[in-house]
Write a structure and sequence with these properties.
Layout: E1 2-5, E2 15-21, E3 34-38, E4 49-54, E5 57-70, E6 73-77, H1 87-90, E7 93-104, E8 108-109
Length: 115
Amino acid sequence: MEVKPVSVLRLRWPLSPVLVTGPSMSPTLRHGDAVLVRRGGREIRPGDVVIAVFRSRPDLLVVKRAVRPTDGGWWLHGDNDLVTDDSRAYGVADVLGRVVARYWPRPGRVPPRPL
């Protein structure tokens, strides 16, 4: 699932707004959801929803679920099993931040999911 940051430069702030596009994180996140991404804070854990860049696709900012650390980065999967635009296709990703909340259209936490 691709994401469109309000501004890539805003990802430098501790909390950044990001607009989600595409179906790969459905039903957790849907096309059009707006989320807050935290840079820094606690370390990424398996099950967290994260914003990342695949090393093989540095032009593509994505939102996925962290599965496991590998090769100094993370192996990521989408929640929608019918869409495979994740580490199965693109390999290891570098995580930029963790999704902590959805603020539009259904405000609420985006909890980690045990894998």
